[in-house]
Amino acid sequence: MKILYLLCLAMGSSAFTQTITFSGCPNLFDSPPNTYVFNKTGVDAFSKNIYVTTPIDGAQDCSGLGTCEFKIQWNNTLTRWEFLGDEGNGTFTTPYLIYYNSTGNNSLPIPPGNSVGTWVENTAMTNGQCGGNLTAVNSTMTGDVQNTTLGTSDLSKNKIQIFPNPVADFIRISGIDDGLSIQIYNIDGRLVKSEMFDSKIDVSQLIPGGYILKITTRNFQTHHFKFIKK
Questions:
Q1: In this structure, are 70 and 98 located in the same domain?
Q2: HSE on the CB side for 113, CA within 13 Å?
Q3: Do 133 and 173 lie in a common domain?
Q4: What is d(CA 32, CA 35) in angstroms, rounded to the nearest whole number?
Q5: Residue 88 has pLDDT above 80, yes or no
């Protein structure tokens, strides 16, 4: 029983790690393409998560930029998510803008994946070496990213529902049979609850207000739902 408990604990901790895995733009970043892991390092003043590849030590060789140290963060002035390359000293003081995405669901604290909105290649910096905008054909971008957009049509198409809403004690989830984990964020973008997937979620301890429920499936698709805690 103890071994089973430790196994479940290990699975739970890995499921809730807030990371983004990326591979793409091999002509500029490296050939064959490297896979880079972004770790969440904090939340900005606009409640958006910040992700950085680690370690930031110049050790990740990169033919096009010298060293491949990257950051994904929100640019509130231009209302868009940006994929940045370090200028070479690990500070991101004057980083290279490699991609930007302004058409995803910008109300969420996590950035769009390569299938949501459009990650536009900044050819002024890359000279077109990345092969155009990010797609599922020329890149992979998985983990703590948006894979679906919110909206009535999406919810209807996926046949996934959460109820009741508003909720006092328990949220129930229907229409999903391959759930892996759930995460709940408050309106400030702070993670307030993480656990393995269950079709019945106890939210009785949450303070009243607005929240976003993130459901991750076993094939790492994600679904996001807004709800109100009474």
A1: yes
A2: 22
A3: no
A4: 10
A5: no
